Amino acid sequence: MLTSFEQMDSFYAIEAHRTKLQKTMGFSDLQTVNTWIDSAGVKPFKDEFIRDYLVNHQTDPDADYQKVTNLLGVNQLMKFTSYGNLTSLDKTGWSKEKHWVRFVSQMGLYAKEHLTAWKAPREDDMEMWFWHGYEVVRFLKAEYTNDHAMENGA
Fold first, then answer.
1. I need a labelling partner for 105 at 20 to 30 A (CA). Which of 47, 48, 141, 148 fits?
2. CA nearest 143: which of 13, 2, 3?
3. Helical spans, DSSP H, in the chain
4. Structural domain for 67, as ranges
5. How confident is the model at residue 49, as a pLDDT?
6. Which domain of life is it from (predicted)?
7. pLDDT for the residue 134
8. How many domains does the chain have?
């Protein structure tokens, strides 16, 4: 069971990460971050990541950034041309890194095609695009894990 101090520490860590997203990704304020996370530019991909990976792996460590970037190839991010099927794609045997790559590529493709609150880096700055996406996944994982730990009285 989390003590009240552990719950506070976890809450403040998540809020610090939310603030980091705001400052590094060009959002005007924290409410804009929250609205963007619940928007069509993130939510369907967040829901897919939670359903297909995080539900069963919430206590796993974060995916290694270098392994994830190597798997995708940062210069390949903007070559994605479709979202694929969000509900019936067979992900049997997928590694943790592949799930993370899927989220980042979906988020990047959406931002490339639509005007969003995220002030995405120039299209030729793939490393920054990918780092932003990776940090969003880390934040969503921490938030989900914390919310479920508190719900389950862990």
1. 148
2. 13
3. 4-25, 30-37, 43-49, 55-57, 65-72, 96-113, 126-151
4. 4-151
5. 94
6. Eukaryota
7. 92
8. 1
